Amino acid sequence: MKKYKLTLWLSVLVLTSCQKDDQADSPVLGMWKATKNRIISGNNSMILLQNPLTGCEASTTYQFWSNGDFEYRQYCSTPSIHETGTFSYGENSNTITFYITTDGNNQLGSETLYALTNTEMQIITGKSDYDMDGVQDTSVTVYTKQ
Question: Domain named Lipocalin-like: which ranges (predicted)?
Fold first, then answer.
């Protein structure tokens, strides 16, 4: 029985360690600050429009830690938004899933990424035919790693 308990305990330890190692390598880790909005052509991926963010929009941030925690701050609404919880990043789906607890209520949310590099994270905010060519274009908010 002791061998069984030891084996079970070691298995749990190894699985938990692997999950934390996977999160520690996540490319989304760090502080990200909103810097601009873009509209990207669905036809050829060219940038059709780009505007720098100013005022309260430029203060919007995401912080992702290696332990799986995140913090989101947005100051343009009244009251301002401050969310914390845990996250997971699906590299194959290009999706960040959020598990948020607010006032004892659990919420699930997600953001779909258009692109992610070491310095830039582009979160999809909408789709429309901006240039009227019959192809849906993608609106993104660009976050720059701080």
Answer: 29-123
